[in-house]
Amino acid sequence: MNIPRIVGAGLVVIGAGIGIGRIGGSAMDAIARQPEASGKIQTAMLIAAALIEGIGFAALFAVAEN
Amino acid sequence: MVFSNKPLQFIVTVLVACLPLFSSANTPTDSVAAKTEATPVEATAHGEATTHEKHEEPTDLKSKINAYINHHVLDAHEFSLFEDEATGKHYGFPLPIILWDNGVHIFSSSKFEHGHAVAESNGNYYKLGHDEKIYKTDAAGTLTGDEHHPTNAKPIDLSITKAVFSMMLVALLMFLLFKGLAKSYVKNGGIASGFGRFFEPIVLYVRDDIAIPNIGEKHYKKYMSFLLTVFFFIWFLNIIGLTPLGINATGNITVTACLAIVVFLITNLTANKNYWGHIFWMPGVPTPMKFILAPIELLGVIIKPFSLMIRLYANIFAGHIVLMSLIALMFIFKSWLGSSLSFLLSFAISSIEILVALLQAYIFTMLSALFFGAAIEEHHHEEAHH
Question: Could you give the ipTM of this predicted complex?
Fold first, then answer.
């Protein structure tokens, strides 16, 4: 089949996963340090995660599109 | 809780009015379409017996499941709830077909008999292709070219498809719901009652945590009606997509494209001169840099709504595919192990999908508010850059 595409999709997912994981981890750290700011941190975290996700999906479509 | 009710109604009407224009039946170029390509190759290997008469009746289980999932995630011209395979009976109801082909042709999609028959309207003949698109044919219904990509002429399809129907349903539901809520506020002197007790905190959240921080105290009222409409519209559509009705409207790229176009128009039509100044002649950077930054910023204007479109579509589409694949495990394993695994996994993923339904609506609204806020930001003084 089309192995390069599958590998490419995997690489995209790994990249997006690392990005979102780092954001989530940092947000956890930040909330642990300042629990009273958790609302603001969560919002910023979601926006950043959404932006990375958007790029990840765009790349995934570029890879998977036939 | 005083925001005017008129713009909300207006925008709901405009949304409903323009969605069908963009949501003619979905293009077959999806990531899953690659899998269906395998079917004709396999079919031709069996000999030349497969002509265009063979309609989506794959023999082995895996391609059957594939076809089913494809049918679910793509838009359709009829509302099919389920079908009895043994008797070949379809349970559901037809939807109106509206075609523009040198004049308007309106007929019921039951004339197609699920793609088996040729529909006749005012002397023109139409046939439903395998890709859920309507092709113009002769009286015998011959499709020329490849079975999956016929080369027949296509009329302009403005039909009320499944996605359009479900969007109209949600829009009507929202209209009645929020109209009733507005009335109950008047009656109770500004205190929520009934459903309002559930929806008031959400509306206030959209106002206080999405609109005001991103757009600012001064201008946020102008955008509230759109933000609330788009939030509840996407949320309700996502939730309705998780019911067994088989609706997949927000997982349809034409629908999300339309929503993104509305965001794009509002952003650019309400933008002030600072926004355009920052795009074409970025202040505070050396002159050569201004020439480099202008095309990048201009590209960003398009990329922002484009990413909104892709994000919502891909999230919901992927969620549906994953969920249906997990349910299909039950039919592939055919043992207690497969069934219980499938049940547990699909239950877990369904719960996550309920969260995703809300999260995607929130993120779409949040990013829209962010773009609106960026477009109407007041001019900063030089010391603000430090």
Answer: 0.77
